[in-house]
Design goal:
heterodimer, A: about 350 residues, alpha+beta, OB fold (Dihydrolipoamide Acetyltransferase, E2P), 6-stranded mixed sheet, 5-stranded antiparallel sheet, about 35% strand, B: mainly alpha, MetI-like fold, two-stranded antiparallel ribbon, 2 strands
């Protein structure tokens, strides 16, 4: 028995002949918090809708606990969804909304009432049974949508950008609450978002998609520290990306000089992308730096300063807690660990 | 101030063409004219309207109007669903097919049915061609019913179609997601959410059906068939405007009452029902 609860093999989805999802393979492990992350139009929502059963893949196969469900209609899948705009039934009160799935299963009314009050407790909305959907705020509607899905005790919960419409503070709170719920209930979550910070905070595993293809699958730390290509590096937080040449193992040239680095296994003199995180760049005295530049702009970001440094014909983004005034000459210092080498995107 | 002034034309219109006529009809209905030509206030026009002959006319009007509304609903709801589910490129065209007959004159359309249903009409022509005996279609209650359904069906289809089109598709998906098969989803989500459309469809078919006199004149003949005919006769033939006005007032109250009952039926959250008439 494999612990892969949902598995997709060679999944492709076309709309009117245009491929939105291109031959992807993925799996979700039991009790995992998996996030599908990508810019809008990358195919992440389509992938989620195929898992839910709202879209049928053009080709490829989908498995649930080892059984094929490629063509199974949504109502027969033990999977529930939290929709982007909540999709609460406006003609029912909160109680009836949450009871919807349980009534279809023909549970006795007593049990329904019990489950609903437990669920409302879980989402911190005790006493809301008789309220109408329209009388709830966005955040409350979101909680009800989660309760309505969770009350059915699905094996997998799908969430389609569920926090997109909430303000920043509420979103942060809900991120923590969702993560706690997932841990407590031991339900597999598949979460779709375009917010890389949300993905890094909540996920056990992240799938990064772009143009219908998977760019990288890995844990948040892996993806942040070891992005596989420049797209991932750029998408998952800000990056300096420069063209370079991998002269030999652990030695790269860019910005008109050579640097020691930790990557190896590239063809000699292969053209590569050199990725450096803004927070890894250290600004030092011009004389001690590996490179020299002039500070072009300084923006205070709260936790740190964001500085743009002109060096040769390149612009470096630097995050630092100490500020260097605009117009000053600075030295740029890097250690081999700070330099990430990636195959150039074709 | 400007706001108030700009509502002036509207208020004037309402006053001249809604309030004044209703008050006039009300006044006419409460007056009797003696043989000497003197006017006096009396409610005798109303008591006369409760004569069994007229009650029968009223009853028949209500019955046929309800039947026509019901048939329009039974035919119209599935049609609206089919239209709403059509791929966009056929949809506009199909909706237009529904609307095009309404561009033609109402009388003309009803006359057309006379030539189809008549004794020597198209259907009977076909029947005799097949060697079957002729059937009387025209001048029956069924012909009137057909005329009503034919003329008023679009008024049922369009509001239901609009509601179904506007319906948030994610609600349907949510219902499927929560375990509802197609029938359950229809019963518990699609149908209840389409009630505002049904209510306006029902009003828009019932009201003209209960008050029409043209359809019954043409497809049933000249008798006092429906309450609309009765009113028409009082005004144009008998020249008793006072009694005609009394019957018109009764009809108005009747429609008002039936709309009120229907909206009570609609129930639910008043904010959710936008599309009905009040």
């Amino acid at each position: 028995m494999s612990d892969k609860i949902v598995k997709g093999l060679n999944i492709t989805k076309e709309f009117n002949g245009v491929a939105v999802v291109k031959n992807i393979d993925f799996w979700v492990k039991k009790n995992q918090f998996l996030t599908i992350l990508g810019p809008s139009g990358c195919g992440k929502t389509t992938t989620l809708r195929m898992i839910a059963g709202f879209e049928i893949p053009t080709s490829g196969k989908l498995y649930f606990e080892g059984q094929e469900i490629t063509n199974t209609p949504p109502y027969l899948r033990p999977i529930n969804t939290v929709f982007q705009k909540y999709a609460l039934f406006p003609h029912m009160n909160i109680y009836e909304n949450i009871a919807f799935g349980l009534r279809i299963k023909k549970l006795p009314e007593k049990e329904i009432a019990l489950k609903i009050s437990k669920m409302l407790e879980l989402v911190n909305l005790r006493g809301f049974e008789k309220r109408s959907v329209a009388s709830l705020s966005g955040g409350q509607q979101q909680r009800i949508a989660i309760a309505r899905a969770l009350v059915n005790e699905p094996k997998v919960l799908l969430l389609d950008e569920p926090l997109g419409a909430l303000d920043l503070k509420l979103r942060k709170e809900m991120q923590i609450e969702l993560k706690n719920m997932q841990k407590e209930l031991g339900i597999t979550f598949v979460y779709v978002t375009h917010d890389q910070e949300e993905a890094l905070t909540m996920s056990d595993k992240i799938i990064i998609m772009n143009h219908g293809e998977i760019q990288q699958i890995g844990s948040p730390t892996d993806i942040y520290n070891e992005p596989e290509n420049a797209f991932v590096a750029d998408f998952i937080g800000e990056s300096n990306i420069f063209k370079g040449t991998m002269v030999r193992d652990r030695y790269v040239t860019f910005a008109n000089r050579g640097f020691d680095c930790v990557d190896f296994g590239f063809a000699p003199n292969a053209p590569v992308d050199v990725v450096i995180r803004p927070e890894d760049v250290r600004l030092v005295e011009p004389a001690t730096g590996l490179l020299k530049g002039i500070v072009k702009s300084v923006v205070f970001k709260g936790v740190h300063y964001e500085m743009l440094v002109n060096e040769g014909d390149r612009v470096w983004m630097v995050h630092s807690t100490t500020m260097v005034p605009e117009g000053d000459e600075v030295g740029i210092w890097l250690t081999p660990d700070d330099i990430h080498i990636m195959d150039q995107e074709v | 101030m400007i706001k108030r002034l700009s509502s002036g034309p509207y208020l004037f219109w309402m006053l001249m063409f809604v309030i004044v006529p209703i008050v006039m009809i009300l006044a006419f209905s409460m007056v009797t004219v003696t043989s000497g030509g003197d006017w006096s206030f009396s409610l005798s026009n109303f008591s006369r309207a409760f004569d069994p002959i007229y009650i029968a006319v009223l009853g028949r009007s209500l019955k046929i109007a309800l039947e026509a509304t019901f048939i329009c609903f039974i035919l119209g709801y599935p049609m609206a669903m089919i239209l709403a589910k059509m791929p966009v490129k056929y949809r506009t065209f199909s909706v237009m097919l529904f609307v095009v007959p309404m561009w033609m004159n109402f009388l003309l359309r009803t006359y057309a049915w006379m030539t189809i249903l008549g004794k020597n009409g198209i259907i009977n022509g076909l029947l005799s061609l097949l060697g079957l005996p002729n059937v009387t279609f025209l001048y029956t209650e069924g012909a009137v019913l057909l005329g009503m359904v034919y003329n008023f069906l679009p008024f049922m289809v369009l509001p239901i179609y609009t509601v179904l089109m506007k319906m948030d598709q994610s609600l349907v998906e949510a219902a499927e997601d929560l375990g509802g098969d197609k029938r359950t989803v229809f019963r518990k989500v699609i149908f209840p959410l389409s009630i505002p459309g049904i209510l306006s469809g029902v009003s828009m078919v019932f009201m003209p059906s209960v008050s029409t006199f043209v359809i019954s004149n043409l497809l049933y003949g000249g008798q006092y068939m429906l309450i609309g005919n009765l009113i028409e006769q009082q005004f144009l033939v008998v020249n008793d405007w006072n009694f005609g006005s009394a019957v018109a007032m009764i009809l108005m109250l009747l429609i008002l009452a039936s709309m009120a009952i229907m909206n009570r039926f609609g129930g639910g959250n008043p904010e959710e029902r936008g599309a009905n008439l009040w």
